[in-house]
Amino acid sequence: MEWLHSLEVEITALLSIVLLVVTIPWILLTKRDSTSAVAWCLLVFFVPIFGSILFVLFGYQHIHRPLKKKRKHKQIFGLTHAALTGDMGFGSELPSDPWNGRGSLASRFGAFPICGGNQVTFYHEGVSAMKAIQEAIDAARHHVHLEYFIFQADETGRAFLELLTKKAKEGVQVRLMYDAMGSRALRRRVLQPLREAGGKCMPFLSLNPLRRHIQVNMRDHRKIVVVDGRVAFTGGLNIGDEYLGKVPRFGFWRDTHVRVEGPAVAALQRVFIEGWDFAAEEDLRGPEYFPLFHDKPVTPSQLSAVAMQVIPSGPDMELKSIREIYFAAILQARRRVWIATPYFVPDAGLRDALCLAGYLGIDVRLLCQHHPDKWIPFYAGRYYWSEVLAAGVKVYQYTKGMLHSKVMLVDGEWASVGTANLDNRSLYLNFEVNCLVYSPAAVEELEKAFRQDMADSILLDPKVYEQRPLPGRLVENASRLLSPVL
C-alpha cells in the first residue's frame, strides 16, 4: 500500500508541474487585465490542479468555432441589413444628439441609433409585468420571439409554455431561445408539447462536455420578448415563480422591466434574430419581422414621445459597449447619478469614476441588496462599498425583499434600463442588452420608483460600516479575489 501511496504522490506532483508549465503561460497570453492575470497565476501556482480547472471553467473565454461564427454573422448582418443601422427604415431617427453626445458615443460602441416615437411602460415588480407579457403574447397574430437567461419549469414556466403552445397551434410562429446554463433545469420533455405544436425551442451555447461545450462564461443573460415586431419587453425579469414573489426564500421581488412600442422594437428584434441565427441557424430577415419599417413615417407629433436607444453587449463585440456607456454617463453627470444593481462588482475604472463623482460633490446613490440570493457576489460587493462610501457615495440596502433591478439614472434626463448588472460578469463575460432612455418624463417615473426603494432601504453610515466585525471583512476580502468572474 505504501508504494501505491507513493505513486499517487508522484503522479500528483508531476501533474501539478505540467499544469503550472501549461496554464500560467496560457493565462499570461489571454488575460489583458494585469490584476486578473496576477490573481489567476497565484491561484494556479499555489493549487495547480484546482486552480487550472477553475481557470478553464471560469477564467478562459475561448472563442470556439460557434462563437466565431456568431461574430462573423454579426458583421455580415450589419452590412446586408442596413435598414436597421442607417437612415433606411428608421424614419423616426432623431437628427441631433442633445444629450452631451452620449447617444453618438453609444452608437460608436455598437448601439442602434437614437429613435423617437416610442411609447414605454415601466413595471417595478413581476406580477404586472408578467401579466402584460402574457396579454401581448395572447394577442399575437404572426410571431412570438422569446429570449431568456432563466426559464424555470415551475408553475409560472409551465403556464408560459401552455400559452406559447396554444399560440403555436393557432399558427403563430413561436421561437424560444434559453440559455443552456441558466435554464439547465428546463428539460426536453417539458418543451415537447410546444415543439409538437410547431414551436421552436433552442438552447444558447449548449452544455456538452464531450464536445468541449462546458463554457461557464459567455452566457446569454438577455431577457427579450418581441410580439409581431410591434411590441417588445426587456429588463431584469426571467420566467419563474421567484419573479412573482412566490418563493419564500426571496419574498417580494423588486425588479424593473419595460414594455416598448415604436421603432426601438426593431432593434430588440434584431438582437434576438442575431442570437437565434447563431443558436438555430435560421435566417429571419423578412419584412414580416420588421413591420414598422413598412408603416407610414413617424409624424413630428410622435417624435415628442420617448426617445430611446437599444445597446447590446457581449463577447462577440470588440468594445464592451454597456460598460463604456456606464463609464461615460458617470463621468458626464453634473448633478446626480442613482444606480440600482443587485450585484456591485465593478472594475477599477468604474469604481474610480464613481469615487470621482462622489468627491466632486455629485449626488451618487447606490441601491443594493440586503437579502442576497448569491453570497459570493454579495460579499465581494460589500468589500467595494467601503471604497465608494469613503468618496461620499450613499449606499442603500433594500430591505423589502429581493432587489434585482438594473437601472442607472443621470441628471434627471437620461436612464439605462435592461439586463446588465454593475459587475464584471455582465459587463465583460455575458451577452446583455439595455435600453437607453432620453426623456425627462420617463426618467422622472424611474426616479419616483427609486425614491420609494430608498424609503424601503437602510442607508449605511460610513463610520458604523467601518466598524463591522473582522470575520465579515475576511470573507469580503476572500470573495473579492473572484471579482474578475463575478
- Please give the number of β-strands: 18
* Number of discrete domains: 3
Supply the number of helical segments: 16
Given the helix and strand composition, which structural class is it?
alpha/beta
The largest pleated sheet is described as: 16 strands, mixed
CATH homologous superfamily title of the largest domain: Endonuclease Chain A
Question: In whole angstroms, how far apart are the ends?
Answer: 43 Å
Anisotropy-based shape: globular
- The CATH level-2 architecture of the largest domain is identified as 2-Layer Sandwich
The low-confidence runs, each spanning 5 or more residues with pLDDT under 50, are 84-92
Kindly report the average pLDDT value.
85
Walk me through the structure.
The chain is globular and about 60 Å long. The model is unreliable at 84-92 (pLDDT under 50). α12 packs across α16. The chain folds into three domains: 2-59; 65-93 and 115-302, Endonuclease, Chain A, CATH 3.30.870.10; 321-485, Endonuclease, Chain A (2-Layer Sandwich). It is an alpha/beta fold and 486 residues long. α12 links the parallel β11 (363-369) and β12. 43% of the residues lie in helices and 20% in strands. It has 16 helices and 18 strands.
